[in-house]
């Protein structure tokens, strides 16, 4: 059994779905609303656990009803929460709009996620016996992500960075990443795959939605990975599930192309229900879809 350590955010998602996205200054009527569990870190941890990995989450929630609910949901999914702190700040919230095509638009208020410290991250990772793969995203403070990458590098563990929301990244962080997993917009904001590879990333795996993925390693042309079939309901969280599945696969020493194909199948399955955790795939389901 593989071990995955997720360093990232825990949010409550406020989701309105239906129709189309509003334009600036416009009000539109949506068809349904739900308050559900989310956050890139929470989604990635829930997905890794569903895929069978021993999963640890390092993050922070508030001392409020949403924080207690988020903690209970993750514990029920089998995620180890020794690294999840409770802090005197409101639990993070994401406001999500989903249109009839399953595309989404997201605004995040960090709340308690902003309290995650490098010392907390280092202590939590130091307590893991290993070996493990480490996953981080950017809805938590950058120094905390840098601490995760430094600890993973020190211990020789795979480090997977989901650079969302995109922001300038120091080369000292990028150079410690086994794989960076931006979508196409994030890749543009980060200066392109060549920039990330020049900064020392082991690989850049670009997710392209219904067009599949591309693997950039600097060794020849990018390698395209075709999309797995899916009946799309909601794309919210699909990138999180892709990244979690990639970490699970790399933790078991799968070659990168095989790991990406497996992750793409997991991401496809994640789009087939409403909400970021509405369709968390199991390993047998991913195997079947990848085939």
Describe the structure.
With 291 residues, this protein is α/β, with parallel strands linked by helices. It has one domain (3-10, 38-91, 112-290): Ribokinase (UDP-N-acetylmuramoyl-L-alanine:D-glutamate ligase, 3-Layer(aba) Sandwich), CATH 3.40.1190.20. Helices cover 34% and strands 24% of the residues. The chain has 10 helices and 13 strands. The strands form 3 sheets. Strands 5-4-1-8-9-10 form a 6-stranded parallel β-sheet, with helices on both faces. A 4-stranded mixed β-sheet has the order 3-2-6-7. A 3-stranded antiparallel β-sheet has the order 11-12-13. Strand 8, helix 4 and strand 9 form a beta-alpha-beta unit. The protein is globular, with a radius of gyration of 18 Å. The chain starts with a strand and ends with a helix. 53% of the residues are buried. The model has no long low-confidence stretch (mean pLDDT 94). Catalyzes the phosphorylation of ribose at O-5 in a reaction requiring ATP and magnesium. The resulting D-ribose-5-phosphate can then be used either for sythesis of nucleotides, histidine, and tryptophan, or as a component of the pentose phosphate pathway. This is Ribokinase. GO terms for molecular function: ATP binding; metal ion binding; ribokinase activity. One of its GO terms (biological process) is D-ribose catabolic process. It comes from Dactylosporangium sucinum.
């Amino acid at each position: 059994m593989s071990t995955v350590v997720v360093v990232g955010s825990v949010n409550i998602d406020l989701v309105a779905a239906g129709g189309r996205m509003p334009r600036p200054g416009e009000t539109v009527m949506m068809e349904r609303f739900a308050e559900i569990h989310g956050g890139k870190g929470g989604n990635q941890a829930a997905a890794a656990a569903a895929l069978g990995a021993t999963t640890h989450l390092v993050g922070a929630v508030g001392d409020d009803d949403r924080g207690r609910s988020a903690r209970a949901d993750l514990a029920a999914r089998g995620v180890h929460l020794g690294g999840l702190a409770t802090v005197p700040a409101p639990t993070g919230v994401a406001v999500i709009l989903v249109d009839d095509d399953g595309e989404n638009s997201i605004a995040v208020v960090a709340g308690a996620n902003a309290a995650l410290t490098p010392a907390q991250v280092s202590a939590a990772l130091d307590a893991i016996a290993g070996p493990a793969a480490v996953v981080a995203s950017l809805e938590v403070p950058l120094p905390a992500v840098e601490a995760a990458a430094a600890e993973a590098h020190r211990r020789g563990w795979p480090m997977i960075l989901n650079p969302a929301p995109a922001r300038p990244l120091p080369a000292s962080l990028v150079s410690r990443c086994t794989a960076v997993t931006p979508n196409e917009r994030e890749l543009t904001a980060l200066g392109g795959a060549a920039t990330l590879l020049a900064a020392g990333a082991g690989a850049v795996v670009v997710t392209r939605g219904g067009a599949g993925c591309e693997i950039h390693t600097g060794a020849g042309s990018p390698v395209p990975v075709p999309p797995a079939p899916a009946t799309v309901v909601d794309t919210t969280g699909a990138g999180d599930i892709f990244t979690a599945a990639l970490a699970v696969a790399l933790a078991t020493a799968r070659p990168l192309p095989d790991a990406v194909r497996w992750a793409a199948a997991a991401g496809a399955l994640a789009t087939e229900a409403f909400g970021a955790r509405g369709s968390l795939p199991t390993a047998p389901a991913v195997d079947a879809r990848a085939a």
